[in-house]
Design a protein that fits this description.
- The complex is a heterodimer of chains A (457) and B (354).
- Chain A has 457 residues and is mainly alpha-helical.
- Chain A has 23 helices and 5 strands.
- In chain A, α2 packs across α22 and α16 runs antiparallel to α19.
- With 354 residues, chain B is of the alpha+beta class.
- Chain B contains 8 helices and 19 strands.
- In chain B, α2 crosses α3 and α2 runs parallel beside α4.
- The longest helix of chain B has 18 residues.
- Classes of the chains: A mainly alpha (457), B alpha+beta (354).
- At the A-B interface, α17 and α18 of A face β6 and α4 of B.
């Protein structure tokens, strides 16, 4: 280090014009942070960015992730018909014609049609065009070398047919050219629409969001998500957590630490095991239904048997996991209240309930807000417990947004995984989460709460 | 209201920390419980207000046994060391709290009137809208005092109320608390480890050590005539100097190190050869008297109005003297100063006063 005490050095330094000092960048710090930054980029920023991109595509199992082709299928024509393509245009596109040319002959030869027959066709009909395959078949039947069986004759004739249908074209121009040749009467605008619609690859589109905004299912999903987050949060994560924390606070130390450990079990149990345990607990033949049966209450599969019990099961099993989080946080906050304050309130004449209500709870504002904010976000995006238990059932009555997004994109029975749609749903969740975070930070004056000074002691 | 502790016993985890303690605080009296940390003074206070339950004996408020009552029903006011104000309530709400939890709850106007009354008494009527975090230590203390008094309690308990204040505020609050206690005429117990606080604020002082009350007396009497060596050593700043030695012939006292002094006159008839300890307070050395001691000044501590001298009178024997500031003595000087032998305190081998 240079010596600050040296007056000569000091003087020399002062003589030079003062340059603003750069904030020192520690190379070691960067090196130490590099792994974390790398992981953050790989597993957070990148997925979020990709989700954002995918949300604006119609990427799905059927489009694949490679480059698409241009194919007009009968199904596509039917769909276009639904969207206003006229029948005559559709017929024109589906039209097939027969041309006797070198390419047709080559196709037939490759398919193993009798050479003498083909030679005769080449001699007699080379260069001829037929509007409909029927005429060509009639002509072929008159040939001496024609096959005896009508089916062989027909399949041989089919090899000379050309049609736009079911042919793969690498580019839109190729398909457009072929369409123009086959059905010149179709208006160019209509043709462009057909070409456009025939693309099999993924396309950029805002269709996902339009669908989400208009379909009826959305409202129910949103309602379910609200009910799930709201009920779990208020009844368990905050309600039960606070209740337990206060009760344990007044219990002898040994008992209170035993109970807090017990309440931690749902959180530390592996999630699959936890879900299986709940199944045993609530399924027909499980603990609860058997117990209910003994007492004479309705006994059935509570997890999936009725909407009400399915909701109760789902909220309870999620709530038990979340309650321990609140319990720990609230217990810590309770212990931070100086003991003398509680003594003072007792001496002042406050009963237990008045002590809790008037002294303890008002001072729990900040931890309650924190748990609410934090758990809203984590409940909004959590679906694994629901997936493993009710799986949104019965029907889709207990499905929530995150579960539906997961199923749409990654796991459903039909096998058509709509990555684009799923990404759009996930993106909505990300945006809602960010908005909520901002609202929480603003509304509850987070910085003020964090920075609030304690009583001067 | 007169307060009695009869055979009061308190145990923690089965170990008695206070056993068979008897104490009476007269109506309107302010009594200090003075002692070193861990002597049981705070335990006694917390038992009086009901936060701790007595394990034996009785606690009487004006003849009424309250030992079995929870703290909510004892009608005591307590000021804690850290004031224990409720941080989420304003000063006004803090003071009103004991009234608002009463059943039946007084009317809002009645509560406001009483809060204002006590706030005026304690000079915090300008602070009612603030929160505790916006108050200085002294102001917080006043609020705590107001909250303790608003319910007109039978007994006021103060647990080290001045310990968290700076020196100047401590001086101010000392007289304030005493003024308020006198004005309200409330029976009060002050728990403190600070002898100056105890002596300056209270009618009587009870010195405690290891769960026992060693002496209860007025401050002056206790200083002048301590019952035992612990009390003598605890009171007085700078502290008393103890000299261990034996009685000698002709009413003299001699130490093995070589220092000899005359015994206090009432002990001159003692047979020689008895082991005793003499306590010499700094103000009784260097201010006249029959005895004298010679030694070298080893340390001088100027305190402004006074000066404190350490004088080595014999190897290993340092006498302390406090005198009005003087410039003619400095470290290394040899001095011969008078010892006021009659005002020395004598203790036997067990520490009892002779």
């Amino acid at each position: 280090m240079s010596s600050f005490a040296d007056p000569i050095v000091d003087g020399a330094r002062r003589a030079r014009p003062v340059r603003p000092r750069r904030a020192p960048v520690s190379r070691l710090g960067l090196i130490l942070m590099a792994p974390a930054l790398l992981l953050l980029t790989l597993f957070f920023f990148l997925p979020v960015a990709l989700t954002g991109v995918f949300a604006f595509t119609d990427l799905s199992t059927s489009t694949g992730i490679g480059r698409g082709d241009y194919v007009v299928t009968p199904t596509l024509l039917r769909q276009l018909g639904d969207k206003g393509l006229s029948d005559t245009d559709a017929e024109a596109v589906a039209r097939s014609s027969v041309t006797v040319d070198a390419a047709g002959l080559a196709r037939a030869r490759a398919a193993g049609v009798d050479d003498r027959f083909l030679d005769e066709i080449e001699r007699r009909f080379m260069g001829r065009d037929y509007e409909a395959p029927a005429g060509f078949v009639r002509d072929l039947r008159g040939l001496r070398t024609a096959p005896r069986r009508p089916r062989d004759l027909k399949s041989a004739a089919a090899l000379f047919e050309t049609s736009v249908l079911n042919q793969r074209f690498a580019t839109s121009q190729a398909l457009a050219a072929q369409l123009e040749a086959m059905a010149p009467e179709i208006a160019p605008a209509v043709r462009a629409r057909i070409v456009e619609a025939s693309f099999t690859g993924a396309r950029f589109t805002t269709e996902n969001f339009r669908t989400l905004a208009t379909q009826k299912e959305t409202a129910r999903l949103v309602g379910n998500t609200f009910l799930y987050v709201g009920a779990t949060l208020s009844l368990f994560n905050v309600g039960l957590g606070l209740f337990l924390a206060v009760v344990l606070f007044y219990m002898p130390k040994g008992a209170s630490s035993l109970f807090s450990t017990l309440w931690l079990l749902p959180r530390i149990t592996p999630v699959v095991l936890y879900a299986v345990m709940w199944k045993w607990f609530t399924w027909e033949g499980g603990f609860l239904p058997i117990l209910a049966d003994q007492v004479g209450l309705p006994s059935f599969n509570y997890m999936k048997g009725s909407v009400v019990t399915a909701w109760a099961t789902m909220i309870t099993l999620n709530g038990f996991i979340g309650a321990s989080f609140g319990l720990i946080l609230f217990s810590g906050a309770l212990r931070a209240i100086p003991l003398q304050q509680l003594w003072a309130s007792e001496v002042d004449g406050a009963s237990r309930w008045q002590q809790v209500r008037r002294i303890i709870l008002p001072q729990m504002r900040w931890p309650i807000l924190f748990v609410t904010a934090y758990q809203t976000l984590s409940l909004l995006s959590s679906y694994e417990q629901i997936w493993l238990t009710t799986n949104g059932g019965p029907g889709r009555t207990t499905s929530v947004w995150a579960l539906e997004a997961f199923k749409t994109a990654l796991s459903n029975y039909t096998g058509n995984l709509e990555y684009g749609m799923g990404a759009a749903m996930a993106l909505v969740l990300v945006v809602v989460g960010l908005a909520l975070s901002l609202i929480y930070l603003r509304l509850f004056k987070f910085s003020e709460l964090v920075g609030r000074p304690k009583i001067e002691i | 209201m007169r307060l009695n502790l009869e055979n009061f016993t308190k145990c923690f985890d089965g170990t008695p920390v206070i056993e068979g303690l008897n104490l009476t605080v007269e109506d309107g009296e302010m009594l200090a419980l003075l002692g070193p940390s861990g002597c049981g003074k705070s335990t006694t206070l917390l038992s009086v207000c009901g936060i701790y339950r007595a394990d034996g004996g009785r606690i009487l408020f004006g003849g009424r046994d309250v030992s079995a009552l929870p703290s909510q029903r004892r009608n005591v006011g307590v000021v804690f060391q850290n004031y224990a104000l409720y941080p989420h309530l304003t000063v006004e709400e803090n003071i009103a709290f004991p009234l608002t939890v009463q059943k039946p709850r007084p009317s809002a106007a009645e509560i406001a009137r009483q809060v204002r009354e006590i706030a005026e008494l304690i000079h915090i009527d300008a602070l009612l809208g603030r929160r505790p975090a916006q108050l200085s230590g002294g102001q917080q203390q006043r609020v705590a005092l107001a909250r303790a008094l608003v319910r007109k309690p039978d007994v006021l308990l103060l647990d080290e109320p001045l310990a968290n204040l700076d020196a100047k505020l401590r001086l101010e609050m000392r007289s304030e608390i005493r003024r308020i206690q006198l004005e309200t005429g409330i029976t009060a117990i002050l728990v403190t480890h600070d002898q100056v606080e105890a002596m300056s604020m209270c009618d009587r002082v009870a010195i405690m050590d290891k769960g026992e009350i060693l002496q209860i007396d007025s401050p002056t009497q206790m200083y002048r005539s301590p019952a035992n060596r612990f009390v003598a050593g605890f009171l007085g700043n700078p502290p008393i100097t103890f000299l261990e030695g034996r009685t000698g012939p002709e009413g003299r006292f001699s130490m093995e190190a070589g220092l000899t002094l005359p015994l206090p006159s009432h002990l001159r008839g003692m047979p020689s050869g008895r082991p005793i300890a003499l306590g010499l307070r700094p103000e009784h050395f260097g201010h006249g008297g029959q005895g004298q001691a010679t030694g070298r000044v080893t340390f001088v501590e100027p305190q402004g109005r006074e000066m404190l001298f350490d004088v080595q009178a014999a190897p290993g024997v340092t006498l302390r003297s406090i005198q009005p500031t003087r410039d003619d003595v400095s470290i290394g000087d040899e001095v011969t100063w008078k010892v006021d032998a009659d005002r020395m305190l004598a203790f036997d081998a067990e520490g009892r006063r002779l």
